[in-house]
Amino acid sequence: MDKKVTVVGAGNVGATAAQRLAEKELCDVALIDIIEGLPQGKALDLAEAAPIEKHDARIMGSNDYAASANSDIVIITAGIPRKPGMSRDDLLNINAGIMANVTKEIAKLSPDSVIIVVSNPLDAMCHVAYETSGFPKNRVIGMAGVLDSARFRSFIAMELNVSVENTTAFVLGGHGDTMVPLPRYSTVAGIPITELLPKERIDSLVERTANGGAEIVGLLKTGSAFYAPASAAVEMAESILKDKKKILPCAAYLEGEYGFNELFIGVPVKLGANGVEEIIEITLTAEEKKALEKSADAVRELKEVLKKLG
Ligand code: APR
Question: Less CB within 10 Å around the terminal CB: N or C of the chain?
Fold first, then answer.
């Protein structure tokens, strides 16, 4: 393939993203993890599926960042999940350390790449990747809105018994319970769902979307969602690799847009070969603005904690 994507973290999200990238024949894939044998084993297993899945993407696994050199895109999923007894700030501190180490290696070996951050807490991890890489703001993007809107779209399709392909949805804000789903901008075959569903049904779909991650954790008991998060990261990567210029909700670094400054927050962006090629500003009602403010406060709070932790 003439394109290369590195996926850092060969866990559930990372390995699934590698599989989707390869099976869509979008690029060669380098899978990197700190655990010896894990990326090599998963890469070999995926390569052995290639004759059946009918693709010629090369997939290599390594513990050494040398394998990631000259990537067009680097998807970072490395991190550890919260363990019993660990505070939110402890987790933030550990994952920020991992994100900083990973980003340093990436910036050295793939200085022209676009970084797609997947690790949580997402918005805070975007800040670490942006500051550590020294990359321009268009080349550091967080995956959150595509996943959250895919969840919203699935729930809309289930509710109305229509094809998911007919649905569009917009979810803005931080990735967490302060996210801001926008029913006015969510449609079925171009018809806003506000015309198709009563307010209380929309409210319940919105609530389910905001709790989408927790719903899966509750079912899985150990671990968190990975199929849909991997799909979301791959949709972003595809738009960049093919310069498709899709408008997708992503965490982007704002400098004045929507009234926010020096903050990663989920907004509609145009994704093309240069990463974030445009931030699209849509008009929001006073209520939607207030919800986005609240979401931005939550991101700022994490940013402050990171600053204190140094
Ligand atoms: N360098 C490389 N890989 C690392 C490092 C590191 N410093 N630290 C941890 N990892 C690897 C782990 O070894 C593990 O294989 O990151 C991988 C994470 O995989 P999982 O634990 O399976 O987590 P996953 O479900 O894939 O989620 C990854 O994405 O959606 C988010 O909240 C989720 O932050 C989490 C991330």
Answer: C
DSSP β-ladder status, 191-192 and 187-188: antiparallel
The pLDDT of 254-279, averaged and rounded, is 96
What pTM does this model have? 0.97
Residue type, 222: T
Fold of 145-309: L-2-Hydroxyisocaproate Dehydrogenase; Chain A, domain 2 (3.90.110)
pLDDT surpassing 90 at residue 306: no
Q: Give residue limits of the domains in the chain.
A: 4-142, 145-309
The DSSP output letter for 248 is: E
**Cα–Cα dist 98/128, whole Å:** 10
Ligand 1 centroid from CA 259, angstroms: 33
CA distances (Å), 23 to each of 29, 31, 52, 245, in order?
11, 15, 10, 22
Does the fold of domain 145-309 match that of domain 4-142?
no
Active-site hit among 151, 153, 175, 270? 175
Q: Which fold has domain 4-142?
A: Rossmann fold (3.40.50)
CA–CA distance from 165 to each of 21, 150, 158, 226, 267 (Å)? 21, 11, 12, 21, 22
- pLDDT level of residue 226 (50, 70, 90 thresholds): very high
21, 5 Cβ separation under 8 angstroms: yes
In the block, tokens 């919260």 appear at 82
Q: What pLDDT score was predicted for residue 177? A: 79
Q: Whose C-alpha lies nearest to ligand 1, atom 35?
A: 119
Mutate to test the pocket of ligand 1, among 33, 42, 99 (most ligand atoms within 8 A of CB): 33
Beta-carbon contacts of residue 302 (< 8 Å; ≥ 6 apart): 92, 121, 123, 124
Q: Are strands 167-168 and 171-172 parallel, antiparallel or unpaired?
A: unpaired
Cα of 111 from ligand 1 centre, angstroms: 23
Residue 175 among the catalytic residues: yes
Residue with tokens 């779909």: 205
